[in-house]
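ping. complex inputs:
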Amino acid sequence: MVTAHAAGQPAPALNQPVLELKGIGKEFGAIRALHGVDMRIFPGEVIGLMGDNGAGKSTLVKIIAGNFPPSHGEIRFAGETVHFARPIDARAVGIEVVYQDLALADNLTAAANVFLGRELKRKLGPFSLLDHKAMAARALELFGELRSETRPDDLVKQMSGGQRQAVAIARTRLSNARLVMMDEPTAAISVRQVEQVLGLIHRLKEQGVAVMLISHRMPDVFAVCDRVVVMRRGEKRADKAIGDTSPEEVTSLITGAKEAA
Amino acid sequence: MTTPLDSPISFTNVGKVRWWQSGFFASQTGYVLLALVALFVVMHFASPYFFTQGNLQNVAKNFSFIAIATLGVTLVIITGGIDLSVGSMMCFSAMVTSMVMTQLSTPGMPGAEWFVHLADDGKTVVANVPGLILLVSVLAGLGVALVVGLVNGFCIAVLGLSPFVTTLGMLSIVRGLGYVISNGRGSFPGGPDADYFYALTSGVVLGLPAPFIYLVVLALAMAVVLHHTSFGRHVFALGGNEKAAALTGIAVVRVKIEVYVICALAAGLQGIIVSGWLGSAPANMATSYELNVIAAAVIGGANLAGGVGGPLGAIVGCALLEVIRNGLVLAQVNSYWQQALVGVIIIVAVLVDRIRSRMA
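pong. complex structure:
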C-alpha cells in the first residue's frame, strides 16, 4: 500500500472520504462490465447504489470487496491506495459485505454466526477452547446497539428475516468496519422487517460507518440514503443528493429514458 | 447459557424457546435414546438373559465394533458429506497391520532383523523390544488409512468431486487393493507381539471390553472437539451453509480434508480392533459394513443433508441396532429378520423426526 498524501498533512478524518474510486473499469474478455466509475463515500454517509440488472452494480461491489481486481483505475481507502487480492484483504482494512443471502449457517446460534471464522477462544492448558460466554455477551451487546430483539443463543433457523439481517450486520460490527456494503437487504422480507433493517442502517450511520445500499426498492433508498448513485451499462450516470432528485428521475435514469444527470 | 439479567435489549415480542423444545431433548438423538431405554425395559421382561453381565458385555463389545467407525462417518455426515469406503478401509487397515506384524516377526524377512532375533534354541522368536512390532504395525495400518483419507479429501475438497462418487470408487479401490496385497487370503496377526495385540483389542478391563473403553474415550474427545473448538464449529458451519462458511473466511478445503482423514483413521482403527477379536483379517472382512455404519449414524440423528449430528447419536444408533439384533436372537426369532428390521428402523427414525419438525 502506498500513502496517497506523500506530502503535507492528511486531511481531517471527517472530510476525507472513507472510500474513493477513480476511473474504475473492468473487462471480462470482450465484455466491458464497468467503465470510468468515480465515486466517493464519506464516514457516516449512506449511499444508494441503483441500477437495472447488468448495470454493473455487483461487479463494482465485488471489486470493492476484493473478489476480483479492477482492470483500470484506483481504489483509495481512507486516503491510501489499496489493492485487494482476496476478500480477506478488503475485510482487513475495514470493508464488510452483507450478502443478499446473508451467508448465515442456519444450524448454528446467532452468537456462533456472528463470530463464525473469528471465534473467541480461551486457553486451557495446551488446548484453545471456544469462549462461549464471551461470545454470547459480545453478541448481545451488538444486538443491543442495533436495537434488535435477538437472543445470542437462539438458532438462526428459528429467526425472522429482520433478526437474520441483524445477525449478518452484527457480524460487520465485530471488526469495527468503516464501510459496510449491503446487497439487497430488503428484497425478501416483510414490511415490518424492512422497517427494522432500515433502522439498523440508521444505527450504523450514527456510529460513523459509511453504508452502501444496493437495492431495487426505491422507497427504501429514499428513506435512508443521503445520496443516490445510478449505474447504467457499466457507467455511472448520476450521483445526486437525495434532496435534489426524485424517484421518477431515478427511475428514468435506471431505464435510460434519461441519459445522465 | 442464559441471557444476563442486565440485558440491553427488552424482548417484547420474541418468545423464548422452552428448554424441552430445544437442544438435546428436541433432537432425534434424544428420542432414539428414549426408544433405546424403552427397548431395554422390554428386553428385561422378555428375556431373563438380557440383563446378565455376560450378555451386556457382549452387547457392549459388539456395538463397539462398528461404533468407532460410526463416530468418523458422523463427523463427515455433519459436514454434509458421506464416506462409503469405511467398510473396505476397516479391512485394508486390519490386513496391513497383521501382515506387517507377521513380516516383522519372521526372521529372515526384510526389515525383521531390526525387530526380532531367534532365541538360543534356534526356534523361538524373541522381540528385540517388546511391543515395538505392535506399535509399528498398528501405525502402518493407520498410515494407509491416513493416505486413503487424504486422497478422499483431496478429490472432494480440492477437485470438487461428489463425496458419494469419490468414496464409492474408493470402496472398490481399497477392497481391490486388499485382495491384491493378500492374494485373496486372510492374514493373521502373529509373532511375539500377537499376545499384546489380542489383549489390547479383545481384552477386558474392570469388566468392560477394551473396544468399549476406546469408544467412550474417542466419543468424549469428539464431543469436546465438536462443541468447544473452532474446528468443530467450522464442521457444523460447513454442513449448515458451505457458501457462508467460505465467505466468512473458514478454510473450507482444509476442514473437509481433515474430516475425511479422521473418518478413514477411525475406520482403520476400528478394523484393527475387529481383527483382534476375529483373530484374523480375512480379505472379505467388514464387507458392506459401510451400510451398517451409515445406518447407525442416521438412526442416531446425523442428518445426511448436513449440519446435525454428534457422538452420542452415533453410539445410540449403534447400540439400538445391536440391542435389536441381540433381542431377536434371545427371542429366538429367525436372525434373517434382522436386516429387514434395521431398514424399518432407519425409515421410522427419520420419519418421526420429520413429523416432529412439522409439528414444531
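Chain B touches chain A at residues 1, 3-4, 7-14, 16-17, 22, 224, 227-230, 233-234, 236-237, 239-241, 243-245, 247-250, 307-308 (CB under 8 Å).
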